Amino acid sequence: VARLIVREIASNQLGPGSVLAPEHVMARQYGVGHPAVREALRLLEAQGLIVVRPGVGGGPVVGTPSGTDFAQTMTMFLQANGTKVSQLNDAVAAMEASCATLAARRVVDGTHDPDLLEAVQEISHNDLLSDETDDAFITHGGAFHRAVRELAGNYIVDLVADSIGHLFSERAGGSGGRHFKPEHRKEVARTHVQIARAITQGNVSRAHRLTFEHMLAEADYVASLYPGVLDEVIDWR
Ligand SMILES: [Zn+2]
């Protein structure tokens, strides 16, 4: 039943917030009992695909599934497998590097969105040095990588990269302090400009290498602020 509901959402291209048929209508439509529909809705709600609004006039509506929702599902697998936070570092770097590769490849093929490329260039020139807190610095840095992922235009890689990035910052992030020294910020800002340039030039291998090394270094640095975090098993949240 859950699969039928997802198919219905996809084939009718229902966006977030779209109201779905009430439970009793679904039961009739799919020829199943109410408990089966309720179970399907609960399953979809747990994955963030729908939201069931309570009360009179409530009912199921299409949700806004995000990397965060996907990440939650992923942690179930990661914990069961005893996966440690240290693996997130490598995975984040690999996925972000893949996004930069795809973005540069799009530029080579001429299939990229010029506005998105411009956004990548523009954000890379944002002065990360002017950020007053670590959180603002991290947010602006994140905006750059999000723009690259958008330019890459591959939802699968975007979703996975977003999810594992979220898992990492959930366990080692939000310092709120002043851990990032001006020299460090300058280095990050410089690297973002270099990555944007490599993508703009369609230099696939350079875009990949720069991003991979940059993300690895950043993740290692952030992890060093949280002693012991790398050896923690990723818990299901
Ligand atoms: Zn960065």
Report the total helices.
10
Structural class: mainly alpha
Whole-number mean pLDDT = 89
Strand order in the sheet with the most strands: 1-2
Describe the protein.
This protein has 237 residues and is mostly helical. Helix content is 66%, strand content 3%. The chain has a two-stranded antiparallel sheet with strand order 1-2. Strand 1 (50-53) and strand 2 form a beta hairpin. Helix 6 (114-124) runs antiparallel to helix 9 (182-200). The model has no long low-confidence stretch (mean pLDDT 89). The chain binds zinc ion (ZN).
Can you describe this structure in just a few lines?
With 237 residues, this protein is mainly α. Helices cover 66% and strands 3% of the residues. The chain has ten helices and two strands; from the N terminus they run αααββααααααα.
Mind sketching the topology for me?
Blueprint: H1 2-11, H2 23-30, H3 34-46, E1 50-53, E2 59-62, H4 67-80, H5 85-109, H6 114-124, H7 134-152, H8 155-171, H9 182-200, H10 204-224
Antiparallel strand pairs: 1-2
Helix pairs in contact: 1-3, 2-3, 4-8, 5-7, 5-8, 5-9, 5-10, 6-7, 6-9, 7-8, 7-9, 9-10
The structure holds zinc ion.
